Amino acid sequence: MAAPNASSEGHHVILSPYRFDANELRWLPTGEAAAKVRMSKEAAKNWRLVLGNQSVALSEIRSTSMLSPNFLILELVKQGHVGLRCEDESGLKHFVAELSKRKADYERFEQYDQSSVQSYFQYYAKLANQQNMLQDGVRTSTYNRAIVENVDDFQGKLAMDLGAGSGILSFFAVQAGAEKVYAVEASSMGEVVRLLADANAFLTKKIEVINRPVETITAAELDGKVDVLVSEPIGTFLFNERMIESYLCARDRFLKPGGKMFPNAGTLCVAPFSDSLLHWEQANKNGFWKNTNFYGIDLSAAVQRCAKEHFRQPIVDYINPECLVSKAIETRFDFMTISVESLQKIEIPFDFEISQPCLVHGLAGWFDAYFEGSNQTVVLSTAPWCSGTHWYQIRFLLEVPLAVNAGQHVEGTLKMEANSLQSYYLSIFMRIKGTDISSSAPCIDLKDPEYRFYTSANSYCPPGTAQAAGQQPASPQQYQQAHFAQTQNILPGQAFAAQCETRAPWVEATAVWGAAPQRPETAPMTNGFGPRT
Ligand SMILES: C[S@@+](CC[C@H](N)C(=O)[O-])C[C@H]1O[C@@H](n2cnc3c(N)ncnc32)[C@H](O)[C@@H]1O
């Protein structure tokens, strides 16, 4: 489909090829070459319809159907550009400003790479993938508590469940006393919500399924604004999938003033970590490309590129809390107030005091989600010291680690930039405070993580967490021993390069701690949107 176009040429606004409802300034990204223009007869006097180089005042158009005394409905079925022209330039400016605001909502999925959108909804259309989320006991039970234990926010209320999936949060809302729940689901999983609701007598009349992206719903389709919005729009490192933007869009358009959001806030947490084994694993993944005689071809020219490729990948697995070498910093995002625009570029400055002499190999991250209800606050935490979830934790690696002594500070910034793959590119800059010794990770691709929990026998398994098939946790004690053997003689600010040669022996020793890696029984399913596995 062609890129959306709403350019202003003089007094013309050209809209192509979207269906367009001028009265509500509503865009439907259907790709149909037809336009629907709806506005009051009064407003229509000032507007002209432009088709190619012909234009006609809306009020003069005869081939219209009158749906109500107040609205003029015009259906155009011709191919090509369809537009409006206003005689009054200030009116046009106002129109264009409003249009741009509304356009952002309706084009949410148009702005993305379409193959990304397609695989995204295909993924969620499968029961197996909904089941994975439902069976994340920490996630589902926390949502359950947050909803059913905040009865005052649901009793007799009108609710919306954005991204209903199998419908579970809609059903919890009814259990908490909601009068009616709009279960909004863009994928064909909407059919399952209906199926399950009709199979459970207490749900059937209380659930209304809207099987479309929330961005395409109009207020007129609802009984009114809702009292409470529930959603699980959370991807890896909170923001992968960019579904929180749809959550904010639903808030702006459908939540009553003073209404509640479940969750109402999220915190992103980052802390520096030291994990030489992980770094070594990644640094050595380019081994194949060192081959100088692969069927007579020297592959080694690709070695550097291969290393960069692996360091661009965030590592998703559980983190042994002992790897963290400073207290985490938390950045709170208040879903009740933040804007979609504020999520396009996120910057997290940091200044960590390092607790022990170590190599800092990068930044570890996780998130918490808050449900601050009228009856009680419930927190869904994915921190390394909490029970594991399907989000695990995440680590962003520095290709060249920093050697830091206890008490030194590491300062810098984590930057996140939204991209058209419904995800983010991240960059990290870290410097030992008061020195010019720094390291950076310039382009990390949040959409393309390595699910190390499934690929490395060295991946950590927190107590009480079911291991992936074939996984053995590395011993934290042995790990720490080896780690400190490597790092105890580091001078303040000494660059890592000098340490490289001393690394291999103990890493080899640690590599045999676990059982030999085996393929997990079920290979992780992924659409590239985080460990929904
Ligand atoms: C993470 S799943 C959560 C499913 C379910 N609420 C649960 O907690 O088990 C997110 C769901 O939101 C749907 N979704 C994502 N963006 C959407 C949008 N803009 N409008 C409607 N549904 C959306 C996806 O298809 C997916 O089923």
Describe this structure in words.
- This protein has 533 residues and is α+β, with helices and mostly antiparallel strands.
- It is built from 14 helices and 25 strands.
- It has helices at residues 41-44, 89-106, 114-124, 127-134, 137-148, 168-175, 190-199, 201-204, 243-254, 276-283, 303-312, 452-455, 476-487, 504-511; strands at 8-9, 12-15, 19-21, 26-28, 35-40, 47-51, 54-57, 65-68, 71-76, 82-86, 158-162, 180-184, 207-210, 226-231, 255-262, 265-273, 315-317, 329-334, 345-353, 358-372, 377-381, 393-404, 409-419, 423-432, 438-445.
- Strands 16, 17, 18, 20, 21 and 22 form a 6-stranded antiparallel beta sheet that branches. It has a 5-stranded antiparallel beta sheet with strand order 1-2-10-6-7. It has a 5-stranded parallel beta sheet with strand order 13-12-11-14-15, sandwiched between helices.
- The longest helix has 18 residues, at 89-106.
- It is globular, with a radius of gyration of 27 Å.
- The model is unreliable at 1-12, 14-36, 62-82 and 468-533 (pLDDT under 50).
- The chain binds S-adenosylmethionine.
- The site of S-adenosylmethionine (SAM) has 21 residues, from helix 3, helix 4, helix 6 and helix 9.
Task: Draw up the topology in text.
Elements lengths: L7 E2 L2 E4 L3 E3 L4 E3 L6 E6 H4 L2 E5 L2 E4 L7 E4 L2 E6 L5 E5 L2 H18 L7 H11 L2 H8 L2 H12 L9 E5 L5 H8 L4 E5 L5 H10 L1 H4 L2 E4 L15 E6 L11 H12 E8 L2 E9 L2 H8 L19 H10 L2 E3 L11 E6 L10 E9 L4 E15 L4 E5 L11 E12 L4 E11 L3 E10 L5 E8 L6 H4 L20 H12 L16 H8 L22
Parallel strand pairs: 11-12, 11-14, 12-13, 14-15
Antiparallel strand pairs: 1-2, 2-10, 3-4, 5-9, 6-7, 6-10, 8-9, 16-18, 16-20, 17-22, 19-23, 20-21, 20-22, 23-24, 24-25
Bound molecules: S-adenosylmethionine (SAM).
